[in-house]
Amino acid sequence: MRRKAILLGVLTMLAALLAPVAQAASLTEVTGFGTNPSGLRMHLYVPDKVTQKPGVLVAAHYCTGSGPAFHSGTEFARLADQHGFVVIYPSATRSGNCFDVSSPQALKHDGGSDPVGIVSMVKYVLQHHNGDPNRVYATGSSSGAMMTNVLLGAYPDVFKGGAAFAGVPFGCFATTDGSGWNSTCANGNLLKSPQQWGDLVRAAYPGYHGPRPRMQVWHGTADTTLRYPNFGEEIDQWTNVHGLSTTPTSTDHPKPEWTRTRYGTQVEGISMAGTGHNALGAGMAASALKFLGLVP
């Protein structure tokens, strides 16, 4: 009897060792996802366990980056594993790997260029992964932060909120000469009134009169790439879009070097003292997704 028990135990251990190991979720490339006028690439992260109707997050990379690099260098996929939402990582394909946030086509609803391709990615996930259209959000760093502003401005019918790390307001990078870079904006010298900034957003989709997405903006005071005045201009823009005062309803310090200002529940700004352009550090993704509602 004892021998049988020992033998049974050994066989059980062997069976466990030989059993196939469950594979963790991985980043996969999706092709043929829909209208894609600028030839963006789409990488998708679907956790092993998703909620029944998962939220969808577009996570857009910085210049010189890529979707896979942004996936491996940020915490969004790990948070998706914990909370069951799906992450889209678009990749820009033009020279320098910057997203188009400057052309007239990009700054108009259904106008063309990169935003149209990204919206196609969202529609693909909603259709093929049972995504929740009421929980679609955008985030990004640098060029991806600028794209976050563009997506929320031109597609308020698709995106319910966004978090932009070291970006500029919607329309700030606009050019008419085909250039993808706007030095006046980058240097923090393109200053407008809240009404003027808000009018740029409203002009992107003139027929739209529905709700506008919530917006959270992050910026380092020592940013020398997209300089710090852009932070205040973003707040001016999004408070105006929501019909809010530019005077904060509350101010606090989640970390000693962070100053968080809130404007009702729709707009939030986090100013980071002494931080440069690489503004998406540890723990910030979770704070952003909590604002958006993807993380409790």
UniProtKB/TrEMBL annotation:
The keyword Signal applies. Keywords: Hydrolase, Signal. InterPro entries: AB_hydrolase_fold (IPR029058), Esterase_phb (IPR010126), Plant_Biomass_Hydrol_Est (IPR050955). It holds the Pfam family Esterase_PHB. Residues 1-24 form the signal peptide. SUPFAM superfamilies: alpha/beta-Hydrolases (SSF53474). PANTHER family: FERULOYL ESTERASE, UNNAMED PRODUCT-RELATED. NCBIfam families: esterase_phb (TIGR01840). This is Poly(Hydroxyalkanoate) depolymerase family esterase. It comes from Amycolatopsis magusensis.
